[in-house]
Every structure is written in structure tokens, then in C-alpha cells.
Amino acid sequence: MSVNILGQLRQAAAKLNPNEVREAAERRPAILLRARSEMAYDAMFRFLLPASLSEAKRQRITECIFLEGETPKPARFDLTLVEHGIPAAPGEFVYSREREEKLVREVLDHDESVGLPLARCFPAFRPEVTSRTIQTIAVENAVFSVATALPNIAPYLGLVWTPGEFASDTAFLTLNQIRMLFLLGGASDRAVGYSEQKSEIASLVAGAFGWRAVARELAGKIPLGGGLIPKAAIAFAGTWVVGSSVERLYRVGYGYTRAERSSAYGEAFERGKQVAAAVIDKWRNR
After folding, report:
1. pLDDT value at position 285?
2. b/e string for 233-249 if b means 16 or more Cβ within 10 A?
3. Domain residue spans in the chain?
């Protein structure tokens, strides 16, 4: 059975191209700053270019930042920050030191496509982008587990891939987790790709068999499909723990310990049950 699943994973991997994530992450975002004083400009630069950046990276990223009136300038900007007190046009964002975290959320809510390149270049955006990435993929995997068990639900879910494209739940869930690793690597200014992230991917694939067995055993013990919510919660929790551990690995150099994984899994499992129940309720209402 393990050999069969590995074969399915190899076939499924053909659907996932890391070059797309790499190209999106490595795109240089253009940022315009509008302010009335040098002090305001200095605060914006400290927000975008913290002291933790190396001098080489600081110089490289500075080329992405433009001041109002500066020439030459790009044809369009991915982000415009204006000093608090200056009228902001639609699509521009007001900056002040007191609302930096809120500003990051506003930018990503407005246009999520800029999240990956902004996070790769500017550390201020990285925690929110990686957190949203982990949550999104974990929800997708929980939803997929529901979709494979309930008839006619798939058209309402908006998944990246459809259940019919895969020979097993494991192939989809694992491939989606690999996609998450690519996105986390891109957002964390790491190399992206199968060979570049081979150790993370190998650990992920090895772990897939464990939670797959747990999910099947749990679902089989609960009659009349009652194991659907726990099965989806396992898919959510396993994905969330993998993503959170890899995010910390990229951020500080080491992932979760066994005890931390166990604790995080318990918390994520409860969240996963809520996600699965909400999906089922939505499907039933429709």
C-alpha cells in the first residue's frame, strides 16, 4: 500500500510546479512612499527595512522603494504608503507607527496577490502572510476530506484541485501540503523547489502515512459516517502542525519538538472540527 501511495504522489506531483511559486515570490514589488517630513520617511523605512536585514539585502530591497516626486519611477506601484494626516487616494494605505500590524492586514485584505513578494522582501509582512498561508491550506485539506465523503458538495468548495483528479485522499492532502511548503519558503526568503526543500518534503511524506492510518481507524470506529468531522479535523491539524513547524524552522532555524507537535496538534484538531462542522452545515443549508 505504501508503494502504491508513493506512486500516486509522484503522479500528483506533476500537477504542482514550484516555478510558479518561485516566480511570484521573486517578483520585486514597487513601493511608493508619500510623506511631508524626513522623520515620517525615516519611520516608513524602519518599518520596511528593519535593522536585522543584512547590508547587502538592504541595498537590494531599497531599489524597490520610491519617494513621491522621484524619477524615474515604475509605471505602477504594488503598494503606496502615505503619512498619517495626508489624504490617501483609493488603494493607498495610511502609515503610522501605532498601526503597523493593522496596515499589513489591510494591504493583504485589499490584494492577496502581493503578499508573497512583499513577505519575501519585507519582514514586516512575513508573519501575517505565512499565518494566512498555513490557515488557508489547512482549511482546504479539511474541506477536501469532507468533499470526498459527501455527494455533490465539491462544486461549492472552490478547491484548487477537484477530488476526481486524485486516486486517494493522501495524494491530494500531501500534495497540498507540499504546495504550502513552497509558499512558506517563498514568503520566508528561502529557496523554493523539490530539490531545494527535499528534507522538509521527505519529512512531510513520511508523516502522511501516520495521520492517514489514524484518520481511517477513527472514521471506521464511528458508525453512519460520524467519523467525517474527526477525519477532516485530522487533515486540518496535520497540515497546520506541519506548516507551523516549517515556518518556525525558516524563521529561527529549528522546528517543533515532539512535545510541541503534540500540544499544537491537540489545539489544531479542535479548530479543525469547527471548520469541518461549518462546511457541512453550509452544504446542508444549500
Report:
1. 72
2. bbbbbbbbbbbbbbbeb
3. 2-24+126-285, 28-123
